[in-house]
Every structure is written in C-alpha cells, then in structure tokens.
Amino acid sequence: MPLVDMRDMLNHAYRNSYAVGGFDLVSLDFLEAILAAAENCRSPVILSLAESHFEHYDFELAMAATEKAARRAEVPVAIHLDHGASQESAVRAINLGCNGVMVDASHESFPVNVAQTRRVVEMAHACGVAVEGELGYVAGVEGEDAAKHPGENQYTSVEEAKAYVVRTGVDCLAVSIGTVHGRLRGKPKLDCDRLKRINDAVKIPLVIHGGTGLADEQYRKLISHGVAKINYYTALADAAGSRIRANARADARCGYTGLVKGMQESIREEVERVMRLWGSAGRAAEVLVQCQAWQPVEHVIIYNVEHVPDAQVEAMMARGREMLATIPGVRRVVTGWAVADKPRYRFCWLIEFTHRTVIDSYREHPLHRQFADNLFRPIAVDRVSVDFEHVDAAPAVPVSRVRESAAG
Predict the structure, then answer these.
(1) 300: exposed, middle or buried (Cβ count in 10 Å: 0-12, 13-18, 19+)
(2) What is the pLDDT of residues 305-315, one digit of tens each?
(3) Paired strand residues for 383
(4) Which of 18, 257, 282, 337 would you label with 366, given CA atoms 20 to 30 Å apart?
C-alpha cells in the first residue's frame, strides 16, 4: 500500500470515531517496530519525527529510511514533522518527504500563533501537505522529553479555538485539556467538557499531545469528542529502556546487539496495544479506499539552445539547481546532458515535486519566475515539458500533460 494523504487519513478517523497513532521514532528500531505493529493490526499509522529529537539522529538520513519503509509497508502510512521550530523547518521536512507538518507556536500569544501558523498553512497547502496547529500549551512533567516543554499547562479556549481554525485554515488542531508531555504523576484530570465544546465549535480532527499514561476509558472519552490523532512516544521509550536494562542485568558483559535484543518486540507490543484500544486496528483496507495515494510528480524538460557555449549552459544549470531546490515542494533538481551523438534534444531537467499541487505553486513561485524568465527561457527556445506521476500510483485523475510549465 502507498503513502497516503494525511488529511484524508485523519478525516476518515474523525468521521468514524477512532484515533490514529502519531508515533515518534528515534531510530530504525522504533521505525521497524511501529510499522510491524501497524501491519500486524492492519492499522493506518503516522510516522512522526519530532524536531526536538533531531539531536539524536540525522533528520535527512532518518527521512530517507522512513519514506522507504513507508512505501513498502502493507498498510496506509503518513509521515509527519512534529513540533517543528520554524517555517524553514516545515519547508525542509516537506522537501524531504513529510506529508504532514506542525510548526509549534503554542507558546506564543494568540495573534502571533495565528500569524505564524497561517504562513505555514499557505506554504504547506501549496505543496498539498496537511498542517497541524496547536492552541493552548501542553507542558512536560518528567521523563526524557519533559524538559523540552517547560512551564505550566495552558488550557485551550473554546472561543479562541474556533477563531484560530477559521483564521489559519489548519487541517487538524492539537488542544490542551489536561495531558502532559513525558510521564504522568497519578491519574490526570482531563477537561472533557472543554474538549466536547471545542469539537462542536471547530468540527475538524483534534489531536492530543502527551498521549502516554491515560486510562483506557479516558482514551475512549477523548475519541468520542473528536480526537482523531494521539501523539505517543514516552511509553515506547520506556518499553525500550526497560528491555535494555533487563538485558544488561541478564548479561553484564553483553555488547550493543545483546543490549537491544528484543527491544523492537517491546516497542511493537505497546504500539499494538494502543492501536487496538484506539480503534484503528483493522481499518487499513477502508482507509486505503478513502485516501488519495501520496505520490511525487516528476517534471521533465528536454531542450536545445542556439548559439550559446556549453560553459554558459552549465553555469545556467548550476544556478538553477541552487535556486530551484529551495522552493517548497521541490524534492530534488537534476540536470543532464545527452550521451548520444546528434540527439534530438541535448539537455534535460528532472525536477521532483512532492505532490501534484506543486505544479502550479512552483510555476508561480518568485524564485522560479526569476530563474526561468531571466536565465532559462531566453536561451532554451526549443523545449518540451512533461509532468507525470509514477505508473504504480494509479491516480484517479491523470496528471500527465505536455505543456510549457514550471521551469519550462
């Protein structure tokens, strides 16, 4: 099954009163365990990479592995940037393959949060990417992630939530109603009446951060009031840590592989437990039918130049690779020269877009217009452009077309 649109996935959960887990991963062990659990449960799943964890791994390398694993999975998968620090973080995540992003401005004043989130929404929606906003503040209590969320909880205002959703256009909303990041101390008192009123006011999928440690009936109550995504990490980290400590006690001289033996199984068991509890188990097939496949678009240009030295063409290509790769939704930019003698076309561009929506937003982007109007089109008068999706995506609406577009 392919990667799928996260917006479609969460809307399906919201309409059908279950929640999808957004499971933070910090290593290949977490990635493999989470996907194994999803496949065992036949559950949709969101692979979440939190910017607060980037100190533990190289984000670019982790994204390459995450996307590869997601595309070969047998259940619907989305990939999400969690707690991004800035607009630039969101652009980078999208260009590396995330199809959901969250830039956390919940610590800011309401007007600043709205303004920052709106900018992210405008950029991400032009790339086809879903955006999670957060209103209210979920603090940390204890555990390895708690220090990254200092201060006190600030509960989400119902009135502000309604205004926030209208003004920002977010696709889902993280709310603060009593959960905490890290480990809970005792049983939390959740303000489910507040949650119900927020759900009645905004009518979009709601998200819970700090999902570890609630009672079964509390999870069910959250889901009944519109929660369609639950972020979950601390319990997975604790399960992994417990297994490592047990291995060390059993054999104090064991090496790395001995220490992590069975760690994936411990993580997988906890993921499976909550997938069944939250109602996403067994939903994979119906989710796939309801969701658009998430498939990149290839923008190909073949062209000739007249009365221009090869050195100038190469300089133009180098400048284009530098400029175009920074545009939101552009995954890679490749330039090439024909290897055959006397080809019909001598030069080419291969530009990969994260989603078909980028075809239009890229064409109108100021960097593209500057490059195409000033450097490319004046010398590449003989050219052909094609935008296409991979044939294994089976798109409902064919996107292939020959036209002068994008860098053409």
Answers:
(1) middle
(2) 988 999 999 99
(3) 303
(4) 337
pLDDT above 70 as % of the chain? 89
**The amino acid at 34:** I
Beta bridge partners of 347: 303, 337
| 3.40.109.30, 3.30.70.100, 2.40.50.140, 3.40.50.880: CATH of 297-402 | 3.30.70.100
- Give residue 59's Cα distance to chain centre: 12
Angle in degrees, 0-180, between the axes of helices 59-71 and 28-41, rounded to the nearest 10: 20
CB 11 within 8 A of CB 402: no
pTM of the predicted model, to two decimals?
Answer: 0.90
Distances in whole angstroms, Cα of residue 66 to Cα of each of 23, 27, 237:
12, 10, 18
Q: What is the DSSP letter of 156?
A: P
Please confirm, yes or no, whether 82 is among the known catalytic residues: yes
Q: How far is CA 305 from the centre of its chain?
A: 40
Among 97, 54, 65, CA closest to 79: 97
Spot the catalytic one: 24, 82, 145, 171. 82
- Mean pLDDT of all residues belonging to the chain: 91
SS3 25: coil
pLDDT band (50, 70, 90) for residue 304: very high
Contacts of 118 (CB under 8 A, 6+ apart): 167, 168, 169
Tens digits of residue pLDDT in 240-289:
999 999 999 999 999 999 999 999 999 999 999 999 999 999 999 999 99
pLDDT at 144: 58
For domain 6-290, the question of CATH label 3.40.718.10 is answered with: no
Q: Which two tokens stand for residue 320?
A: 């284009």
- Tens-digit pLDDT profile for residues 12-36: 999 999 999 999 999 999 999 999 9
Give the H or E element holding residue 335: strand 330-337
